[in-house]
Every structure is written in C-alpha cells, then in structure tokens.
C-alpha cells in the first residue's frame, strides 16, 4: 500500500510541476466501467450503440490471441465487441444482446476458445451465428481478414503480444484494414500467401522493431513499412503519431497497458469517434509523459474501473496535457458569388507557447456570398472559453466596364493599359487589372485596331479600340501625363494650370474643358485639356471617394496573460451609408496583459477629423 501511495504522489507531483501556473481546465472526462471486463464491454456497447444493432461481435474474455483482431470486422458491420466466457454466455453479454435486438453474431475463435455450448445458447436466443476461426491465432486472424474484402492496407503485428494489436485496433477499424498475426521469426504459410496475393496494396504496415518482428520476416513482406520501436508504450505512441492526421487527436481513450479486454472493447467506440487508444501504466513511461505534455486533449474516455485505471493514472492523463490559451479571430477575403466554407481548423496558441491546430465548430456551415459586404460569425473551440470570430469580407465584382478608346501615332509606341475603370456590384467604381488578348494586332499602319481584354470575375470581354493616326511621325500622341487623382468627398481641388511635356520635359499651359469641379458628390470626373502650342490633348481622371461619417467606439475584452495585438483596421461608415475597413494608427501606450486593468487607446484615421477610441479591458483569468 505504501508503494502504491508513492507512485500516486510521484505522478501528481510530476503533473503539477508540468502544469506550472496554468488554470486547470481538465478535459471532459467519461469513465466507462463495470464490475468486471464483461460488464465494462457491455457498458461500452451502451455508450456507442444507444439504439438497436443487428450485429454484434463476440470474442473470448479469457484470452487475447483470437480476440485482438476483431475491431475492423466490428466496424464493418457497425457492431459492438462483447466478451464471453469459454463455456457459457456471460450474463452481461446476454442482457446486452437482448437490449440491442441483435439478429447476427460473429463468434471469433474455434470451439477450443469459445465452446459449442455458447454457440447453441445464442441460437436458442434466435440469433444467427457465424463462427470465424482457425486452428490457431494466426489462422484466425487470416479468416477475419478474408471477411473484410480486398484490403487497401494491411497491418501485421506479433501474435504473442496484445499491445500492438489494440493500439492499431481503432485505426485499423477506421481504415477497414485487417490485422494479421505473425511470429517474430516466422510467418505462417497461408498468412504469407494472403500477403503475397495483396502485394499491390497501398501499404503493408509492420508494427514493432526487429526485436518484435525480425528483419528476415520484414524483408519477406512486399511493400512493407515498419512503424514503432522500443517498448509497448513507445510503440503505442509511435502508432498514434504516425496516423495522427486520420484521427481526432484531442479525443483520447485511456486503457490499461497490462490487459487487453477493455482496450479491445473500447476500440470500436474509439473508431466511431475517430479517437485513439492510449495505453497507460503507473508510473507513467517517459514516452507517454512526453506525448501527453505535447498535446491538447479535450475529451478523455477512461476504459475500466479503478482497479484497472486508478485515479492516479486518471489524474495524470487529465492534467498533463497542455491547453489552448488563445485562439485568434479569422479574417478572410473573397469575391462576391465565390463558394466559401469556414475553415474546419485553425492554428491556436497553447499554454506552453507552442502553436497547435484545433477544430472549430462554427455557428454556420456555409455562407451566402451573393451580396458584397462584411460578415461576422463566431465559432467555439473545445477547451477554450472564448469565442472565435470569423470576419469575412466579400468584395464586389465588376458589373460594367465601358469600352476604351485610345489614339496613337504609332502602334509600337502604344502600351495597352494594365487597368481599366469598372463599376462594381456595390455601386462604387474602381480600377481593376485587365489581361489583353494581343491576337494579330501587331501591324503599325494607320487604321483601327481592336483588342479584347479579360477582367477577373467579369463575364464579358473588355473592348479597346485603338486608332493609329500617323505611324511615320515618330512623335507620340501621349506626350502628356494622363493623370489619375483620388480625393475624399468635400476636399477642395484646384485644376492644374500646366502639364508636363514628357518629350521636352517642360511644363506647358493647359486649359481644361471645365473651370471647377464639384467635389461634394462622389464619382469619377474625366477631363480633357487643350495644351497651348500643342496639337495633342491632355487628360485627367479625378476619383471622388466618399468621406468617413462615423467610426464607432471599439470595445474588446481579453483574458490576463493572453496575447493581444491592436487591430490594423477599423470599420467605418461612409457618407453614402456604406461600411468599409480603413487603416488606423494607434497612439498606444505599453499594454501590460499580465495585469487586469482597462486601457483607453486613441487612434487616427486619415481623412477623419475625430479620434478613434478603443477600450481594452484586461480581466483576470
């Protein structure tokens, strides 16, 4: 008793040292157990199969060799794994079969493992029985494999140990992958024939180092890949890490590394939840400690009672994993009518400062992007108490682009414009990039040349008409800057009195086709100017953008010790009642996120004559 107490204290001392000062937000924990392994298997079945099930898989509860390969078969038929005694149907199993209304049972193992008396008892209950078994454990694994059909992948484990088989069980179940048993130095001939008949499988996984399955055996297996090394706990971790991309890594099922029954019964439940089996022991092996302290575990299912998984081991599994400390908001930009699905996972910060990938449950599944604008949604992350924001900007698309007309004395001296002016779906105008189809328009003789252009998200072709006036003059018509100027609504603007002659590099007097410009209205003004002593015209485009009418006070709350970065943009309302994002410069003092207090931070936005106020409240965790 004294020795067990020391183990208990050692594990908890380790757990709390590794936790440091983090808030204890242990995973959601569920213990599934009964008075013995038979009742535990029944409780697992009740957890995963709350309604009826036409099928069940029954294996020996007294010895592991035939039992440990049953998980993929159970998953194929959406069936629980139940345990029985050799000579009589266990009472917990019998009650569970009746609750489920089972019509078909697969008995795994020959009569020396599960007797004829058990089979007869099942038939008396009106259940059809299919017995799957061979003369030994190796042949039984082969017969189970045949029931799964043509495999894409195969797992091979040493049949003298149960640990590798139960570590692989939920993964094999998820992937529909048979688990074959072999010896360390020998592979039974009929098992080898099956392997060779499936040599074109995507991959054949050999579990364990050369001390588990020898080099000779490994070399005889086609397309083989070895996974796992070291002791059974290190191999368990290696298996989890290798297949982690196919698992919900925050969904852990903890089972004893000293007995097979609870791990095997729980493997099908783990597969239903894309979880994994972690083999535990006290004291915790270093490989298991390293794994737990490097992961975020939000859901912990303990398989077995206190006599199997003690509360010392449960405590270590709860409090060693790191936690999510901060999840940043998501900012995405798309175009109107584009398909958009919120990301299933995002990168978050953990309590140890590392980055982790976490799943997000959003308050929507799909976004209607038929209208431009800013859309805000939220999501939840398991184990994180804040909400994650999703800020989606849907850009307007071009709906009208007028034809473009240009003149030039020479085709060789004319450069097609990189952008064209477009009317967007939200009523604004903007210059958008255009890609021209040059075609055969490479001649230089005077005349009319037509070009088609393509603008992204615009369903028509852009037309440009180019008139070549005098190819031999050698003097270009675009001798003056064709200037585009953008100002804010209401901002005074004086027309330039001169334009620069790019040939002589002199400023020339210009008279525009208007005396003044009304900047109180938004829009685009195109001006043509007559240049003194020049036969060529000057052109000016003035874009009047709406002014900012209002920027509301921003209030944010962050937990003490979390990361915070001041926003680079704020949402503003314009004079035409649209909402746009604008850049902001903050007059920010030092922000101490380690001390609960409230900051009042002023910011400046160009063309907005009022200060922007951000109220940041740092609260204790």
UniProtKB/TrEMBL annotation:
Residues 1-25 form the signal peptide. The keyword Signal applies. InterPro entries: Bact_Sporulation_Assoc, Big_4, Cell_wall-bd_2. The keyword Zinc does not apply. Keywords: Signal. Gene3D superfamilies: 3.40.50.12090. Residues 329-384, 404-458, 481-533, 551-608 form the Bacterial Ig-like domain. PANTHER family: GERMINATION-SPECIFIC N-ACETYLMURAMOYL-L-ALANINE AMIDASE, N-ACETYLMURAMOYL-L-ALANINE AMIDASE-RELATED. This is Bacterial Ig-like domain-containing protein. It comes from Clostridium malenominatum.
């Amino acid at each position: 008793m004294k020795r067990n107490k020391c183990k208990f204290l050692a594990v908890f001392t380790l757990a709390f040292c590794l936790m440091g000062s983090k808030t204890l937000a242990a995973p959601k924990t569920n213990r599934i157990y009964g008075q013995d392994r038979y009742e535990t298997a029944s409780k697992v079945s009740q957890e995963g199969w709350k309604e009826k099930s036409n099928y069940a898989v029954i294996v020996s509860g007294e010895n592991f060799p035939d039992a440990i390969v049953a998980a993929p078969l159970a998953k194929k038929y959406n069936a629980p794994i139940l345990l029985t005694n050799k000579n009589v149907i266990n009472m917990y199993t019998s009650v569970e079969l009746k609750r489920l209304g089972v019509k078909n049972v697969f008995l795994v193992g020959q009569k020396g493992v599960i007797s004829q008396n058990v089979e007869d008892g099942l038939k008396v209950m009106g259940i059809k029985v299919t017995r799957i078994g061979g003369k030994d454990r190796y042949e039984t694994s082969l017969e189970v494999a045949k029931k799964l059909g043509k495999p894409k992948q195969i797992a091979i484990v040493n049949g003298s140990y149960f640990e590798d088989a139960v570590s692989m069980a939920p993964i094999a179940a998820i992937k529909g992958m048979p688990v074959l048993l072999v010896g360390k130095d020998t592979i039974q001939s009929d098992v080898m024939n099956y392997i060779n008949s499936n040599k074109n499988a995507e991959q054949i996984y050999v579990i364990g180092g050369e001390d588990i399955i020898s080099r000779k055996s490994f070399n005889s297996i086609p397309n083989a890949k070895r996974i796992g090394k070291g002791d059974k706990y290190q191999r368990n971790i290696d298996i989890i890490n290798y297949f982690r991309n196919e698992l919900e890594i925050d969904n852990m099922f903890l089972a004893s590394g000293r007995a097979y029954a609870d791990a095997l019964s729980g493997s099908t439940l783990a597969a239903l939840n894309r979880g994994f089996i972690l083999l535990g022991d006290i004291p915790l092996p270093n490989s298991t400690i390293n794994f737990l302290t490097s992961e975020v575990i939000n859901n912990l299912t303990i398989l077995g009672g206190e006599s199997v998984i003690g509360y010392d081991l449960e405590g270590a599994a709860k409090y060693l994993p790191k936690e999510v400390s901060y999840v940043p908001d998501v900012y995405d930009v798309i175009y109107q009518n584009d398909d958009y699905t919120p990301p299933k996972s995002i990168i978050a910060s953990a309590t140890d400062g590392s980055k982790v990938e976490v799943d997000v449950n959003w308050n929507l599944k799909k976004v209607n992007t038929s209208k431009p604008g800013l859309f805000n949604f939220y999501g939840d992350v398991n184990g994180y108490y804040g909400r994650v924001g999703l800020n989606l900007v849907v850009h307007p698309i071009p709906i009208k682009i007028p034809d473009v007309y240009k003149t030039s004395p020479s085709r060789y001296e004319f450069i097609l414009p990189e952008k064209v002016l477009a009317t967007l779906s939200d009523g604004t105008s903007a210059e958008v990039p255009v890609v021209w189809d040059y075609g055969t328009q490479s001649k230089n003789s005077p005349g009319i040349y037509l070009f088609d252009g393509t603008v992204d998200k615009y369903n028509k072709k852009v037309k440009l008409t180019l008139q070549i006036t005098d190819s031999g003059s050698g003097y270009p018509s675009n001798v003056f800057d064709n200037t585009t100027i953008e100002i804010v609504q209401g901002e005074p603007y004086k027309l330039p009195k001169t334009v620069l002659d790019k040939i002589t590099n002199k400023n020339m007097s210009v008279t525009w086709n208007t005396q003044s410009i009304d900047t109180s209205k938004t829009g685009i003004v195109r001006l043509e100017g007559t240049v003194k002593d020049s036969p060529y015209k000057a052109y000016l485009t003035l874009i009047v953008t709406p002014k900012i009418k209002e920027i509301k006070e921003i209030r944010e709350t962050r937990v003490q010790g979390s990361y915070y970065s001041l926003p680079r943009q704020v949402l503003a309302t314009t004079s035409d009642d649209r909402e746009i994002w604008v850049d902001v410069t903050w007059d920010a003092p030092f922000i101490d996120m380690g001390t609960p207090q409230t900051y009042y931070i002023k910011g400046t936005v160009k063309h907005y004559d009022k200060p922007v106020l951000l109220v940041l409240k740092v609260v204790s965790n």
